[in-house]
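Researcher: Structure prediction, please.
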Amino acid sequence: MASVRLMKGRGTWFPAAKLLLAGLLSACGGGGSGGGGSALPPPSGGPTPTPPPSFGVAGILTDADTGAALGGATVTLGALPNATTCNRAQTDTFNACGAPTAPVLITATNASGQFSLALAAGGTYMLAIAAPSYATFHRVVSASPAGRLATAIITAQITHLTADEIAWLADFNNRRATISLPHSFPNLAVDEYAERQARRWAADVAAGITQYGDAGWTSYANAYGASPGAMYIVGAIGDLVPPPQGQWSTADGAWFAEKANCPGGNWQTCQFASNTGHYIEASNTSDVWVGLGESLTSFNYPPFGQQYAYGVMIIGNNAGPGPPSNRIVTSLARLRH
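Model: Predicted structure follows.
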């Protein structure tokens, strides 16, 4: 008898696996040794029809730092955003480019971090996994025919945000809503892959692994672009702030203070320059997600002395979203020197 691999998610067998399992049990039951059992009746009506394939997305969610399973996270799966549904269509309450679009399926991870969602058909989808105080996992997934079971298996890790990062995001969003002119939207979320690269950049600057500035930032933008979650264009704003550590508000203040150099304070009509670019990029309504990088140690930056590195990796819909094969990743790093 040929072996059949069954795939289980959230305690229930996918439909095609149920049919296969039922077929195997009925085909193998009844007989005993030495002719003492009853013989199986001969097949009638031709070969048994092959059950249709079952499509789905299943996986497990863990903490990126500890490896612990994360239960109770919200898992959302839906169609990819496109130019019709999301191009520059942010609102106060919803960032259409930042979430799967209708029709959507929603579930939660169980105590072991496992989740599964059954699909009516194969195709390319957007997956988002969110939990309080964590970065949000975004990814393009494909559930396409691969034998009887066509289920995309995802191993997801998300980063726990520090208290500083949570407050920093709230401050950044609040400044977009109150300082940006015209009004921008306080709905940006921290993306897992952008967060990894923003943190890495800040740590590497402090450790002397990379230089502070546009040239030093490029490799981190490219690393985000090579990640499974990349869907949009990469931009960045950065600053150096003297001790003590934890002065993200000072960095935010410096970026949004560039409004004074824009005629009428309007970021949409302001000419991009070294003394306006941070304000323009931070205020842009095409922004979708961010990553927040704050070095944990200071470093000597002549002639200014000891400094902490702060950077925001901005993921924006400047050219419209698309599946991985259509990614456009351009470094737009405009760091404040």
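Model: The two ends are 69 Å apart (CA to CA).
Researcher: Thanks, that helps.
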